[in-house]
Amino acid sequence: MRVLQLISSNGFYGAEGVVVLLSSCLEGMGCDATIGLFNASRPQQKDFLRAAKEGGVPVWDLPCSGRFDPIAVARLALYLRNSEIDVLHTHGYKANLYGLLAARLAGCRLIATCHNWTNRNASLHRYAALDKLLLHRFDRVIAVSDTVAEILEQEGFDDSTRLRIIPNGIDTVKYRRAAAQPSTEETLVLGALSRLQTEKGIDVLVRALPRIRQQHPQLQCVVAGEGPERERLLALAEELGVADQLHLPGFCADTAAFLATCTLVAHPSRMDGMPLAILEAMAASRPIVASAVGSIPALLRDGEAGVLVPPDDPDALAEGILLLLKNPGLRSRFAAAASAHVAESFDASVMARACFDVYQDLCGVFVAMPAPTRVA
Question: Could you tell me which of 31, 34, 28 has the C-alpha nearest to residue 4?
C-alpha cells in the first residue's frame, strides 16, 4: 500500500513530529510511506528534513506560491497518479484544501487528521471555518482527541464510520532511555516544551515565577521553543524581576535529552488539543503541572498522573509547582503513573496500527502487519 502524508509547515513542531513518526512506523509495518511537504527547499524546513532523514522517510517537495496555487494542485494530482498512491493523508488547513482538489482529480482515497484549530486571530478563524466545510468531502476524518472529535461532531460529523479518534503517538522508548541516564544536575529546573505563542500561556508561567522564587530562589525556568512572543516574554521577566531565572534557548532538536534535565515540567496552555509536549514529559517520567484544557485532564487521568490547574491563573500554577517541589514522593508517584499510561496508550506503534487499519478499511485491502519491534 502506498501512502502520501501531506503537510504544510513553518517549522518542526508537534504535528510535524507526528507526521514523521507515523510515516517511519508505517514503513516498519510494510507500508510504502512518503511525506509531501510544501516548499521543502526553504530554509525553515531544515529541521523537518533532518528528522525525516533520521526516520528513514523520503520527502517529496511540493513547490507552492501565493495564497492559492493551481499549478501546485496539478503537480500534486500528477504525483498521486504517477506514483500510484492509494491513500492521501493530509494534515492541516492548506494540505486539506490542496489534497481534496488533487485527490479528486487523481481518483485517490482521502483522509485528514485534525490536530486542532487555534482560532487565535480572525484569519485563522476563517481558515478553520473553511476547513470544517472541506472535511465533509473527505473519505475519512481522524481526530487526535475526544475534544477535537466533539468539535467535529458539532459541525455535523455524526457518522462513526467516517470519523475516527486516533490519539497522537510518540517514541516512548526514546524518552525512557534518555530519562534513565544518570544525571549530575543538582539545580532545580522547571522545564517547558512550547511554541512561544499567546495560546501556549508561557506568560502565565513567567508571572508565576516571582511567587516560586520566594521559596526556591535558585530554581531555573527553561522554555524550549521559539515563536513571536519571545521579546515580550523577556521584557515581562525583566519587569517582574525574574530575568535571571528565565531562559529561552530556542528550538529544541532533542526533546528527550532536554526533558531528562528537568526536575518537573509545566504546560500552562490557554487552549490545547492533544499536546505532544505533555506526552513527551509523561514518557520521560517527569512530574507535570498543566492547565486543565482540551484533552490534558484525560491525559493526566484527572489529576492521578499530574497536577491540573485552571488556565490563565499564575497563582494556581505557582501553587501546583510549589506542591510538587516540596513533595518528592508525590513527584515520583505522578511520574510513574504518567509513564505507565503513555506507554500503554500513546506509543507510536499504537497510533500507526490504528491509522493502518483505517487505510485498509478504506481501500478494502487487508495486509497482515508484522509486529513492531519493541526495545525495553
Answer: 34
Q: Where are the alpha helices (DSSP H) in 5-145?
A: 14-28, 46-54, 70-82, 93-106, 122-134
Nearest partner of 279 among 299, 256, 259, judged by Cα: 299
Round to whole Å and give the CA distance between 150 and 172.
27
pLDDT at 115: 84
Asked if residue 152 lies in contact with residue 259, where contact means CB atoms within 8 angstroms, the answer is no
Collect the ranges in the chain with pLDDT lower than 50: 369, 371-376
Strand partners of residue 142 = 113, 164
SS3 category, 118:
coil
3-state secondary structure of 308: strand
Q: Where are the domains of the chain?
A: 2-169+347-363, 173-345
pLDDT given for residue 298 in this prediction: 92
Alpha-carbon distance 343 to 142, whole Å? Answer: 21
Q: Tell me: domain 2-169+347-363, CATH 3.40.1160.10, correct?
A: no
Burial state string for 346-357 with b = 16 or more CB within 10 A and e = fewer than 16: bbbbbbbbebbe
Which CATH number is 173-345's, of 3.90.1150.10, 3.40.50.2000, 3.10.129.10, 3.30.70.270?
A: 3.40.50.2000
Q: What is the pLDDT of residue 376?
A: 38
Name the E strands within 102-225. 109-114, 140-143, 163-165, 189-193, 220-224
Q: What is the pTM of this model?
A: 0.82
The whole-number pLDDT of residue 374 equals: 42
Q: Report the pLDDT value the prediction gives residue 125, as an integer from 0 to 100.
A: 64
Task: Give me the torsion for CA of 279, 282, 288, 292, rounded to 10°.
Answer: 40
Q: Which residue reads 535558585 in cell numbers?
A: 218
For residues 287 and 334, what is the distance between their CA atoms, to the nearest angstrom?
6
H-helix or E-strand spanning residue 152:
helix 146-154
Determine the Cα–Cα distance for residues 247 and 190; give it in Å rounded to an integer: 10
- Residue 372: the pLDDT is 47
What pLDDT, on a 0 to 100 scale, did the predictor assign at position 185?
A: 64
